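Morning. Coffee machine broken again, so started the prediction first thing and wrote up yesterday's gels while waiting. Chain of 193 residues, entered below exactly as on the submission form.
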Amino acid sequence: SMIGSAFAKIKHLYILRLVERNLPRDAEEAQAAFIEGIAITQTPAHLIPEVRTVWQFHSEKFDLDVKRFVAAEEKGDKGGVAFSPDLVLAHTESNSLEVVDDKSGWQPPMTESELRTNFQARVYSRYARDRWPNFSHYAFTLYAVRFNKRVTVSFSQADLDAVDVEIQAAISTIELAKVANEWPAIPGPACRF
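Came back before lunch.
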């Protein structure tokens, strides 16, 4: 959505500003990131108030642990699969890496069991292991911004090894659809059957 895209750009700019200044939070930087992000994403004027409401709600609560910061919106590509985690944090005391993904929509937060089987959580954690190796565990945090709720699951090395076959299955599905030029509707997790 346009609101989600604007929010993601604003958050990315804000994180970069905080890292550059070694700050956990700053209201002026949050406002500057908002203005710049709206301009870069060319958010339509009628959506700006809602983006601002969501951003203010979030930025007043968000603290960046700058010492744990690894990356934000770093683009990765491996084997035809691209990923771009919103935020990556290293937890050296537990030898774990955490990938944080913000969701700015109205979808209620997932439970831990739902998140553990979520394709994005599994794929991002798997590719984080390739990009940032040598951690014992890889965690994925889904942050439902409008609900101010975080859900985190941790994956072991063995958990992540099992993801490769899931990725290959998804790639094969797309390749077959391209060849047949058939793109059936696929219900998402918000659909109820």
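The mean pLDDT is 92. Going to sketch it on the whiteboard this afternoon.
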